[in-house]
Design brief:
By secondary structure, the protein is of the alpha/beta class. It contains 13 helices and 16 strands. Bound molecules: nicotinamide-adenine-dinucleotide (NAD).
Length: 447
């Protein structure tokens, strides 16, 4: 399945240079097989895949069930810093496999194990980079949830770790394995929509409630809160800055811009290709929700790409998005428009043109099983997964630039060769994360 245009020679050379002389990886379908010495000793395609899960919250539990749809998957160990979450993971393993996995609170004990081939990382965003890099160093393949990390710099370190250690790493934005989205975006890249000059993605969500303003308090029994914080700045425990709601605090994540934004930017770029943005400008605020969350509930970001404009918008408190869709994407070409979401896609042609017919296609089933299957197949074949880290880093970088532009209130100019924001040291500082001691990230560059 070809999901993305090959890198242009210019982009390819730039990326290779950024990688500091490491052997570059081409994008999906074009790469030579990765030969993994660590995995080569394993039996062939029918062998078991032994999983270690790190982060057994809502998504970790969902992903675990999805991995278990594949008969060759077993789970050796589950890691979470919260006893309640560990118990949920054990329950799933008992139900689906009739086996009780080991449980640990320190993810490094997952990486030590010889009976773990693959690590599934579904921790909060600030805890994606370190486990992924250390897992690559330990010779594990990795399925890591989206967004790739909390910052662009961490994403780059993860990409370098995957390359250096020849690991198969897939980012968990399952829409890249969704049949009708692949079909629509293949059509866009075929040129049938004519010249696409504006791409718009939106997420209007009325189900996001105010999370209130609870006071700081002691962390719950059975939770290793210091390990939950990890590399993030020290902060007293607050129920809002914890499970699920960590999304709305800059210390751990990037709000809807990087939460839903990464999913939709992923889909938008499936249609337009691997070009880098030249700049981003963003505005918005906390206009709807009265609570102690930090990230904007309403935000619009405009990106300049070399030959099109990309617009992102999100809003809490209302489900009525554009074209009566709560969320969606519109690619506007010169032959017509394509409007798409999980319910399917619609082609609306320009009446004066004859190249394209109006069309409505229904949505396809939940793409997550196919996305996990693609990863497992690649673990065995040593080919690149559809959302390998070249792509995952590219997609996440675009989303992060929106957050940086919002936080500084300025248009940020992106230098993709050096992965820096030009002429704005304050904005450039947000490209990388400062880690609380004793944590550090191998392969990380400083601001
Ligand atoms: N692909 C998708 O559609 C999708 C959907 C939802 C969430 N996600 C992503 O999944 C990730 C998790 O989101 P969630 O909603 O499940 O959050 P969550 O808060 O429900 O779960 C995170 C879990 O990680 C655990 N954790 C925190 N630090 C840890 C550490 N150091 N070691 C081990 N466990 C640790 C927490 O205790 C918690 O149980 C996020 O990055 C999110 O963006 C992806």
């Amino acid at each position: 399945m070809t999901l993305m245009k090959p890198l242009s020679r210019r982009t390819f050379l730039r990326k290779s240079a950024v990688a500091g002389g490491l052997a570059p990886l081409a994008l999906s379908g074009l790469a030579p097989a990765w030969v993994s010495r660590a995995y080569a000793a394993e039996p062939g395609p029918n062998s078991k895949v032994r999983l270690g899960l790190i982060g057994c919250g809502a998504m970790g539990q969902g992903d675990l069930q999805c991995f278990f749809l594949n008969p060759e998957v077993d789970c050796a160990v589950i890691c979470d810093v919260d006893d309640e979450r560990l118990a949920k993971g054990v329950e799933i393993c008992n139900k689906k496999r009739g086996k009780t996995p080991d449980t640990v609170k320190d993810f490094r004990r997952v990486l030590d194990r010889k009976d773990v081939d693959v690590v599934l990382i579904a921790t909060p965003d600030h805890w994606h980079a370190i486990p992924t890099v250390l897992a690559c160093q330990a010779g594990k393949d990795v399925y890591v949830e989206k967004p790739l990390a909390k910052t662009i710099g961490e994403g780059r370190a993860m990409l370098e770790a995957a390359k250096r250690h020849q690991r198969v790493v897939q980012m968990g934005s399952q829409w890249r394995s969704c049949k009708h989205i692949v079909e629509a975006t293949d059509l866009i890249r075929s040129g049938k929509l004519g010249k696409v000059s504006i791409v718009r993605g939106w997420a209007y969500l009325d189900w996001l409630p105010s999370i209130g303003k609870p006071a700081d308090c002691p962390s719950p029994a059975g939770v290793d809160y210091d390990m939950w914080l990890g590399p993030a700045p020290q902060h007293a425990f607050n129920p809002n800055r914890f499970h699920f709601n960590f999304r709305w605090f800059w210390d751990y994540a990037g709000g809807l811009m990087t939460d839903w934004g990464v999913h939709l930017i992923n889909m938008m770029l499936m249609g337009t290709g691997p070009d880098e943005p030249k700049s981003a400008y963003s505005c918005g605020g906390k206009f709807v929700l009265d609570d102690n969350s930090e990230t904007p509930d309403s935000q619009v970001t405009m990106y300049e790409f070399p030959d099109y404009t990309l617009i992102w918008e999100h809003k809490a408190g209302l489900n009525n998005g554009l074209y009566n869709r709560s969320w969606g994407i519109e690619w506007s070409g010169s032959e017509g428009n394509i409007i798409l979401n999980d319910e399917g896609y619609e082609i609306r042609t320009e009446r004066k043109r004859a190249n394209l017919d109006n069309l409505r296609k229904p949505g396809s089933p939940d793409p997550r099983p196919a996305h996990v299957r693609n990863f497992l197949d690649c673990v065995k074949s040593r080919q690149q997964p559809v959302l390998n880290l070249d792509i995952g880093h590219h997609v996440s970088t675009v989303a992060h630039l929106g957050s940086i532009a919002y936080r500084t209130g300025r248009k940020v100019i992106w230098d993709p060769l050096n992965e820096r924001i030009l002429a704005d040291p304050e904005a450039n500082k947000l490209v990388t994360a400062e880690y609380r001691k004793p944590w550090s990230l191998p392969y990380a560059r400083t601001a």
